Amino acid sequence: MNLYFCVVKKKEIHFRSDCPIGKTLDILGDKWSLLIVRDLVFKGKNTYGDFLNGGEGITTSVLADKLALLECGGIISKGTHPESKAKILYSLTPKGIDLIPVLVEVIEWSEKHHEVHPFATSFVKQLKKDKAGVIKMLRQSLK
Amino acid sequence: MNLYFCVVKKKEIHFRSDCPIGKTLDILGDKWSLLIVRDLVFKGKNTYGDFLNGGEGITTSVLADKLALLECGGIISKGTHPESKAKILYSLTPKGIDLIPVLVEVIEWSEKHHEVHPFATSFVKQLKKDKAGVIKMLRQSLK
DNA sequence: CAAATTCACTTGGAAATTCCAAGTGAATTT
DNA sequence: AAATTCACTTGGAATTTCCAAGTGAATTTG
Q: What InterPro entries is this protein classified in (chains A, B) (predicted)?
């Protein structure tokens, strides 16, 4: 992975600096990308149509753009779908799977400071008991 | 904190859903906001001018906008600067300080998967030894 | 103590991104 | 064979970001 560029399949990510937080934002710093990762990790979604009807109402053009950028950033990869040739199976790369601890901290923070869905509240309770175990289980579920 | 809105001083944040990750992105989901938080936590920056010359080159209009949104989102607050009346002191709220574990996970993830500044690499080594201790120290440094 | 500078912004306009609705072609189902 | 599903693309409007310049209050300088 280059220090200041990343070009894959026509898409290009320009890294502004060698700051780890800055680089993360260059890949994931928008309103949608992390929701796609969330759908992959927590909701078992893995097709274009799944993401499109994923709750928050991303538009199709933005979805196409974000999927390409996530692929360029090494977070997701495209594969053949077991059910049909018409479908494309999106999955997290190891780099994408490694985002789970970040997601977990985000959920914990947000649950503490906002009103959120009851499911999130009970998820955070699980985390308080055994964070490492929860993360391990989530990793397993993506194998 | 309301479930779907947050309006403070003319600025407004609209929460798309009751998902904790979604709400986080509604406040912090852009290319700049988290860098401002980073500057506050890790670089001891706390004035408008500090952020403006903060390395990555945010523009003044975007900075003004992001500061207002971060304030609206309850992440930062404005105060009087001890040195001068012309300056405004920005500081993290308790909610903003609670972002430290999120930042730490982001740094750990990004350092693993990208080439980053040597400082980040040695910081991650510290984390491997005693993550809780490092987080505690960072919290202390903001008191 | 008047003039220059610092400081935290605002303003105006161009460029980029996002939103929205409609359309396309390959694969699948009816 | 026709209709539907699927993963997109296209075109255009709305919003956000970028860029350069300007503003007024507070502070420093000559």
A: HTH_HxlR, WH-like_DNA-bd_sf, WH_DNA-bd_sf
Which nt is closest to the CA of A59, judged by C1'?
C19
Distances (CA, A) of A138 to A40, A132, A143, B27, B78: 11, 10, 9, 26, 40
Q: Which nucleotide is nearest to A81 (CA to C1')?
A: D6
**Residue B59 backbone dihedrals phi, psi, to 5 degrees:** -85, 155
Residues A75/A37, Cβ–Cβ less than 8 Å: yes
Q: Is A2 on the interface with B (CB under 8 A)?
A: yes
Q: Can you list the residues of chain B whose pLDDT is less than 50?
A: 1-2
- Residue A31 contacts residue B26 (beta carbons within 8 Å): yes
Beta-carbon count within 10 A of B91 CB: 13
Q: How many CB atoms lie within 10 A of CB A63?
A: 17
Instruction: Write the CATH number for B46.
Output: 1.10.10.10
pLDDT (tens digit, 9 = 90+) per residue, B70-109? 999 999 999 999 888 889 999 999 999 999 999 999 999 9
User: What's the domain range around A53?
Assistant: 1-93
CB contact under 8 A, A106 and B101: no
B43 and B1 together in one domain: yes
Q: Look over chain A and give the mean of its residue pLDDT values, rounded to a whole number.
A: 90
Q: Which of B15, B31, B113, B123 to mutate to test the interface with A (most CBs of A within 10 A)?
A: B113
The answer to whether the beta carbons of residues B39 and B49 sit under 8 Å apart is no
